[in-house]
């Protein structure tokens, strides 16, 4: 058996990864995992195309064409839920391609990737629900131990309780109900499955959105506000957003000798002694940012208003087109990107890191906000599902 393609793949893969790590170490945001994954995908594309062509096949052009569709949609507008759907379909398309590739080439690489995918899928199917419940309760305990006991910090606990109640209903109560009522309530698992699919797509696109690497040629950097401590002090969460903006600002001066304006966006809450934008600007000045490079937007109360009011300020200072990015916490930047698009801004976000224990709760909160943003669509789909099962229940009642 000829192992030359696999040997060449290993050489290019390992060599490229080592070169990528060395290259990214010199950058302010190394993100070596992302760039190593990109290089690995490029190597696999050439490997699979090469061995298939040697066997007289050209089926690899189909997943490549679909990859092109996904990339076109993603780079056209990164902040779209459609990108999550397209990416997950791409994964399935590639999975089917691996099956085809194994059948005609007997590639050990394709067989290994396919085997790994099947093992992961089996693990999810066998242990997924139980593992999810254990994880949610464990994470809820950590969050409640380290954060305030607000409703926003109890989302993982509430989800765990809901899934537990559903499990009890499914195993102990459903069999004792009348058949017509059971059939109506059978819509619930389908709705749950629908919202689970929506969450999966949201999570996929949110993770993809983390890999933004804006060029150091920006005119403006918008920092999205958050609440102040004691009404006048920048909180640790907000400080991380500002620090990310300052880091990019300093990097751009270093590599491009261009000063971006940092626009601090945040109004004054009822319990705050001064606008968030002003407190943020004071923090940035204390960190060494020149006052001439700071702008303040002090009227906004929501993320959408952050974007709308910031755009008005930038439009007054400089006619379009200007280059702009925004910073927030990593779990928030995808939804903020949607609002930027709604406000007419062609801007992508870079995220500040969040404590790992808080991410599940934070992403659940963002997911709920995304569902609320498109509530009409979800209401129609859930209404159709319920109508179908009510119809089936009525038919079953009369036929019975």
UniProtKB/TrEMBL annotation:
TM stretches of this protein: 6-23, 32-51, 57-75, 82-102, 108-138, 150-174, 180-209, 379-399
Top-level taxonomic group: Bacteria
Record's keyword terms, sorted: Membrane, Transmembrane, Transmembrane helix
Classification via InterPro entries: Cell_Envelope_Assoc (IPR051599), DUF218 (IPR003848), Rossmann-like_a/b/a_fold (IPR014729)
Start and end residues of each DUF218 domain: 219-369
Pfam families, alphabetized: DUF218
Keyword Cytoplasm (UniProt): no
The protein's name in its UniProt record: YdcF family protein
Taxonomic classification: Bacteria, Bacillati, Bacillota, Bacilli, Lactobacillales
């Amino acid at each position: 058996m000829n192992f030359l393609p696999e040997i060449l793949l290993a050489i290019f893969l390992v060599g490229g990864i080592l070169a990528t790590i060395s290259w990214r170490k010199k950058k302010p945001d190394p993100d070596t995992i992302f760039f190593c994954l990109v290089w690995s995908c490029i190597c696999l594309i050439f490997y699979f195309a090469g061995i298939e062509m040697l066997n007289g096949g050209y089926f690899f052009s189909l997943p490549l064409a679909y990859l092109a569709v996904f990339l076109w949609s993603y780079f056209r507008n990164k902040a779209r839920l459609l990108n999550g759907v397209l990416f997950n379909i791409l994964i399935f398309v590639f999975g089917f391609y691996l099956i085809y590739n194994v059948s005609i080439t007997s590639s050990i690489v394709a067989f290994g990737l396919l085997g790994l995918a099947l093992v992961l899928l089996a693990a999810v199917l066998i242990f997924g629900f139980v593992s999810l419940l254990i994880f949610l309760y464990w994470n809820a305990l950590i969050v409640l131990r380290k954060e305030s006991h607000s409703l926003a910090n109890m989302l993982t606990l509430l989800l765990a309780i809901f899934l537990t109640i559903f499990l009890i209903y499914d195993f102990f109560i459903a069999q004792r109900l009348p058949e017509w009522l059971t059939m109506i309530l059978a819509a619930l698992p389908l709705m749950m499955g629908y919202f689970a699919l929506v969450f999966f797509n949201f999570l996929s696109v949110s993770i993809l959105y983390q890999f933004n690497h804006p060029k150091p040629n920006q005119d403006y950097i918008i920092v999205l506000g958050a609440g102040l401590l004691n009404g006048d002090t920048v909180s640790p969460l907000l400080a991380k957003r500002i620090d990310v903006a300052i880091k990019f600002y300093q990097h751009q001066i270093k590599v491009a000798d261009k000063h971006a304006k940092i626009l601090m966006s945040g109004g004054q809450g009822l319990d705050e002694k001064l606008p968030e934008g002003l407190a943020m600007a004071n923090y940035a000045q204390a960190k060494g940012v020149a006052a001439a490079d700071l702008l303040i937007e002090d009227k906004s109360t929501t993320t959408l208003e952050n974007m709308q009011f910031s755009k008005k300020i930038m439009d007054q200072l400089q006619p379009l087109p200007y280059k702009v990015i925004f910073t927030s916490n990593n779990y928030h930047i995808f939804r903020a990107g949607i609002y930027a698009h709604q406000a007419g801004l062609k801007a992508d976000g870079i995220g500040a890191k969040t404590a790992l224990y808080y991410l599940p709760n934070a992403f659940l909160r963002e997911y709920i906000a995304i569902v609320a943003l498109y509530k009409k669509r979800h209401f129609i789909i859930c209404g159709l599902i319920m109508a179908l099962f009510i119809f089936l229940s009525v038919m079953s009642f009369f036929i019975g």
